[in-house]
Design a protein that fits this description.
Helices cover 71% and strands 1% of the residues. It is built from 17 helices and 2 strands. The chain has a two-stranded antiparallel sheet with strand order 1-2.
């Protein structure tokens, strides 16, 4: 492990956060005024809120970077306590008032907390810790199948009940990745994947809203399965992504200029959250979109390198898992905005407005840095032992 790699990784993360703040300063202007009025005061209300979240995230990332990641495995009560805490929050959120048809947020006064975001992080930690402690017993059905499926299934079942299909997908895929890295037999992984996939599809085809989005993506008015899609629902579901594509066309190579977006004037819903990438594309063009894409790729490559140089298998699993969470969500968000995937609300890490999203990204970054820092320390100890033995 080289110290320079950790430094570059930190610079790449900082660049993504700064770019996110720049685009949010424009993307959230009109919605802030529309929501709270008083144009001179509330134009930058989302930017001010995001700056607060970034400050909190910086502290959290530093704490997790300094925290020895091996404690999650060595002191199981820490992992169990964190897992149960998130589980309780996921249950509590089901008793809140729905917002846009879903129950995903807990009002903590200073910001709305989304337990589903934390469930993604602690799926990676809990499954990786369990499988690593199981050692050779991971090949047994109890250790390699039933316990991991319980860890993943409790989180996944509660988030799909909200409903939150995006978090369900990420939790399921992250859990499976941890099982692959943990050495679980492929037949066991295949069975879990098959059960999850059948359950997901069965739930999906009985949800008119999601079926409308899928029909819109496929370019048809009705899929003639499961839930009956109301007349015009597919067209309505396609509205957001069509407006996003207009933003891309308007932006072209060099964009229309920072703060000059037309789509943020209530043409593109969720301009400051799920579709913020489209606003960046409109205002700064390909000069923005290609570097952002490459920064996420570089983030992923550096995280994989840090994972590969880890001093133990548990560190590798954790770093791989955290890298997957950030990279997968980034690629999926960009794919939705470009209509490569069906419309699904999923935040763009470091860009989309939201405290919990920024906090979960900070924990992922801090954990990856922790793996790298501990690897450096182990390398120095090994060199010191060699010097002493001479």
């Amino acid at each position: 492990m080289r110290k320079q790699v950790l430094f570059i990784f930190g610079l790449v993360t900082t660049a993504l956060v700064v770019l996110g703040l720049v685009i949010l300063s424009s993307a959230g202007q009109r919605y802030g005024v529309r929501l709270y009025g008083n144009e001179g005061v509330n134009e930058y209300i989302f930017l001010r809120g995001q700056l607060k979240y970034v400050g909190i995230a910086l502290v959290v990332a530093t704490l997790f970077a300094c925290f020895d990641y091996r404690n999650w495995r060595n002191y199981p009560f820490l992992t169990i306590a964190a897992y149960i805490s998130i589980l309780i929050l996921l249950v509590l959120v089901l008793f809140t008032d729905p917002i846009k048809g879903s129950r995903r947020w807990l009002d903590l006064k200073f910001f709305n907390f989304q337990p589903g975001e934390m469930a993604k992080i602690f799926t990676v930690i809990a499954v990786a810790a369990w499988l690593d402690r199981s050692s050779w017993r991971v090949g047994l059905w109890k250790n390699g199948f039933w316990c991991p499926i319980m860890i993943i299934g409790l989180f996944a079942g509660l988030v799909i009940a909200e409903p939150d299909f995006g978090s369900f997908m990420v939790i399921g895929l992250a859990g499976l990745l941890m099982m692959v890295l943990g050495g679980v037999q492929m037949i066991q992984i295949f069975i879990i994947f098959l059960i999850g996939f059948i359950g997901f599809v069965g739930y999906l085809i009985h949800n008119p809203n999601r079926m409308a989005r899928l029909a819109a993506w496929l370019g048809v008015s009705d899929l003639n399965v499961g839930a009956k899609i109301s007349e015009g629902a597919a067209e309505q579901a396609d509205y957001q992504v069509n407006q996003a594509l207009i933003a891309f066309k308007n932006g072209g190579y060099f964009g229309v200029g920072l703060n000059q977006s037309m789509q943020k004037y209530h043409y593109l819903p969720e301009a400051h959250t799920d579709f913020i990438f489209a606003i960046g594309a409109e205002e700064l063009g390909m000069v923005f979109t290609i570097p952002v894409f490459l920064l996420f790729v570089l983030f992923f490559i550096l995280a994989l390198y840090i994972a590969r140089k880890s001093c133990d298998k548990f560190g590798r699993s954790l770093a791989y898992g955290m890298a997957f969470l950030i990279f997968f969500q980034a690629m999926f968000n960009m794919g939705v905005v470009c209509k490569a995937f069906p419309t699904k609300g999923m935040a763009l890490p470091f860009f989309s407005y939201g405290g919990t999203n920024m906090l979960s990204s900070a924990i992922a970054v801090g954990t990856i840095l922790s793996v790298g820092i501990q690897s450096l320390k182990e390398k120095r100890r090994a060199l010191l032992r060699k010097v002493v033995l001479r």
